[in-house]
């Protein structure tokens, strides 16, 4: 009996979350919400999530339970496919990564695999826009050109870069501009990242500022333009895959690097080796892989990925799903604050009688730092502050720990909410909808079942 019921609401969630919500919460019209669960609704919802919802009194109407959200967010026709995720396999990578696309190759890291202080190669997400180039046989012969608005254009090999400039290492989050995109409703175009288009590695190379200074930037230089050797998916050599840039002051920050090593090992081909950019705090697309040229420009760069609604967000909020007005968009610069729970994993089952669970996670905030991380086990009715670590350097993520009480057996959701150094906290739902889904940073939730 219970089994059958569970199936049905689960399926309704997958096909029509609005209707499932109405059934569970006893909502009678599209607008009025009772706001809490009781009676048959509570029984149905508890069956669907696999246990009594301990804090049902504060469970808000309209909430798709974390235990079901993964399936529910997929369109009905893809729900079946979502239940059987495509296997991911790549040399040296954890098979637990989620494949988001194979042409170009894109894979994200489920939050629970981001539990290390520093994300190892094996768990680091992959994002390509074009074809993956073959690795060169002699990495130190790799050439980088610096040209454009400079007094002395440079052509340096990687070997020369290593000799001529001081080596520098930075712990920094690399985060795709579209991280969190899957949380937008209506769905936004692009790879459906949850929170795993991000990782924090130790990057080693030389200061980008030092190298740019060696080329003598002219006062007319205002923006960088980045070029790499990966071919466009079409195979047309005249078409650029991606070419983004940043304002000169961002490129001149102390932590912006030309990188040849990741976590003390030579930078692997899949992450842009032998040479990539690392421009921390901003969308990952600014951190060009297989970097072959930086051109300084006398105006904002206009390469692929710089124009239209690419890597841009609305200035004034737009009606979700409506046609964008290009004049209402600005370049996405610093990434927004985000906190994740890296332990326990979503869907964790704990032994009956467990009354407390230790939590771990990470939080970061683009150019800013994270001021506080809070967790809730009662759907946000009450919040508890976590122990938040300091960043090892600017742009590092901050690890946090906490322990929360589980007063009885049943279903819980653990919610995390990070607040940045300018007092901006994560919203409940992805805000500032935009056609390509940038900046979605709703609170992360994990479902935990006790008993
Ligand atoms: N040459 C090149 N650089 C690139 C890209 C690309 O497609 N080609 N993708 C960018 C994007 S969108 C992101 S999020 C990061 C991903 O880096 P990773 O694959 O090392 O995780 O690389 C950036 N640099
Ligand atoms: Mo990205």
% residues in beta strands: 25-35%
Largest sheet: 5 strands, antiparallel
Number of strands: 23
CATH architecture of the largest domain: Alpha-Beta Complex
Q: Considering DSSP H and I runs of 4 or more, what fraction of the residues is helical? A: 10-25%
**Approximate shape:** elongated
| CATH T-level topology of the largest domain | Sulfite Oxidase, Chain A, domain 2
Low-confidence stretches: 1-6, 27-33, 74-81
At the first level of CATH, the class of the largest domain is Alpha Beta
Total discrete domains: 3
- Rg over CA atoms: 23 Å
N-C termini distance: 20 Å
CATH superfamily of the largest domain: Oxidoreductase, molybdopterin-binding domain
> Helix segment count?
8
Tell me, rounded to a whole number, the average pLDDT: 91
Q: What does this protein structure show overall?
A:
The protein has 451 residues and is α+β, with helices and mostly antiparallel strands. The protein folds into three domains: 9-74, no CATH class; 121-331, Oxidoreductase, molybdopterin-binding domain (Sulfite Oxidase, Chain A, domain 2), CATH 3.90.420.10; 338-450, Immunoglobulin-like, CATH 2.60.40. Helix content is 15%, strand content 28%. The chain has helices at residues 2-15, 17-25, 39-49, 66-72, 76-83, 158-164, 208-214, 248-251; strands at 98-102, 105-108, 126-127, 143-148, 154-157, 167-175, 198-207, 223-228, 257-262, 265-266, 276-278, 291-297, 312-314, 329-331, 338-343, 348-350, 356-364, 370-376, 384-385, 387-388, 398-405, 410-420, 444-450. The strands form six sheets. Strands 6, 7, 9, 10 and 11 form a five-stranded antiparallel sheet that branches. Helix 1 packs across helix 2 (17-25). The longest helix is centred in the first third of the chain and has 14 residues, at 2-15. The protein is elongated and about 75 Å long. The chain starts with a helix and ends with a strand. The relative contact order is 0.14. Mean pLDDT is 91; it is low at 1-6, 27-33 and 74-81. Bound molecules: ligand MTE and molybdenum atom. Residues 124-130, 174, 176, 228, 230, 241-242, 271-272, 284-285, 287-290 line the site of the ligand Nc1nc2c(c(=O)[nH]1)N[C@H]1C(S)=C(S)[C@@H](COP(=O)(O)O)O[C@H]1N2.
């Amino acid at each position: 009996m219970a089994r059958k019921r569970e199936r049905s609401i689960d399926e309704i969630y997958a096909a029509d979350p609005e209707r499932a919500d109405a059934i569970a919460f006893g909502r009678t019209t599209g607008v009025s919400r009772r706001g809490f669960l009781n009676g048959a609704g509570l029984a149905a919802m508890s069956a669907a999530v696999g246990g009594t919802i301990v804090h049902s009194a504060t469970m808000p109407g309209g909430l798709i339970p974390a235990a079901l959200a993964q399936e529910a967010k997929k369109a009905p026709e893809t729900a079946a496919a979502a239940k059987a995720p495509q296997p991911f396999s790549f040399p040296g990578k954890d098979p637990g990564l989620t494949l988001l696309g194979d042409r170009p190759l894109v894979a994200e890291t489920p939050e629970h695999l981001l539990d290390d202080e520093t994300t190892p190669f094996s768990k680091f997400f992959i994002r390509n826009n074009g074809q993956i180039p073959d690795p060169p046989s002699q990495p130190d012969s790799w050439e980088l050109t610096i040209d454009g608005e400079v007094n002395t254009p440079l052509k340096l090999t990687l070997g020369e870069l290593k000799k001529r400039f001081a080596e520098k290492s930075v712990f920094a989050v690399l985060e795709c501009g579209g991280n969190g995109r899957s949380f937008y409703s209506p769905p936004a175009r692009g790879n459906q990242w949850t929170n795993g288009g991000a990782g924090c590695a130790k990057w080693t190379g030389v200061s980008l500022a030092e190298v740019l200074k060696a080329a003598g930037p002219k006062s007319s230089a205002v923006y960088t333009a980045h070029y790499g050797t990966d071919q466009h998916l079409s195979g047309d050599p005249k078409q650029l895959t991606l070419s983004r840039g940043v304002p000169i002051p961002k490129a001149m920050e102390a932590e912006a690097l030309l990188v040849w090593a990741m976590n003390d090992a030579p930078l692997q081909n899949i992450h842009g080796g032998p040479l990539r950019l690392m421009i921390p705090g901003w969308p990952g697309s600014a951190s060009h892989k297989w970097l072959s040229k930086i051109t300084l420009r006398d105006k904002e760069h206009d390469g692929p990925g710089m124009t239209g609604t690419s890597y841009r967000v609305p200035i004034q909020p737009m009606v979700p799903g409506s046609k964008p007005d290009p004049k209402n968009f600005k370049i996405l610069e610093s990434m927004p604050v985000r906190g994740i729970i890296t332990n326990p994993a979503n869907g964790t089952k704990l032994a009956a009688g467990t009354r407390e669970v230790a939590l771990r996670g990470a939080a970061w905030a683009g150019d800013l730092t994270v001021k506080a991380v809070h967790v809730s086990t009662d759907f946000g009715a009450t919040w508890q502050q976590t122990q938040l670590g300091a960043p090892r350097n600017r742009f590092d993520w901050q690890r946090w720990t906490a322990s929360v009480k589980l007063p009885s057996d049943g279903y819980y959701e653990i919610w995390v909410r990070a607040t940045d150094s300018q007092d901006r906290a994560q919203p409940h739902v992805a805000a500032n909808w935009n056609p390509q889904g940038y900046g979605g940073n709703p609170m992360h939730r994990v479902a935990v079942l006790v008993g």
